Amino acid sequence: MNNYELMVIFTPVLSDDEFKAAQKKYTTLVTDNGGSIVGENPWGLKSLAYPIQKKTTGLYWVTEFIAPSDFNEKLKIQLLRDESVLRHMVTRLDKYAVEYNHKKRSGVPTGTEKVQEA
Amino acid sequence: MAKANEIKYLTAIKAEKRPKKFCRFKKYNIRYIDYKDIEFLKKFLNEQGKLLPRRITGNSLKYQRKVSDAVKKARQMALLPFVTDLLK
Fold this sequence. Notes:
With 118 residues, chain A is an alpha+beta fold.
């Protein structure tokens, strides 16, 4: 069992309900395969730094979950088959990243604020 | 023969003393660099969105690698541009 972070960019044409349904689809996929969701953060509509599939905006969704390592292949297949997904990325989190995300969720300063301009 | 410490110059040599660079991740004890925190990552980029070298940022090699990984992830997810002008 490892900690992962999934970031998905959905197409901006989804309605609020469809966006919620898409999130639900992937969270149930995680829980059905013996994983558990740690945290979710839908960023919503955000402009992209460069166009993807001729779209300049996207619906961002970030989630952190714990799952067995063979789950990622199944997740990848589902994400690639889904036409509403513009792009996705799964990152494996080390113990420092888990700590950082936990701090960020609970509103504790993460330490990066102190760093001033070079 | 004049000894080395007796040599006097007509004009004073400019001895500019720069403050020593340091690795800010080691100094502030930052262990994880978040690819989602774009404002933080922009400190390590120039105006074209390219990574600044270590000799300018002063990062240690360990953390420069992590910065570069984080920036590349952010670029893939369209949080940072691959090429641009006037990023800041």
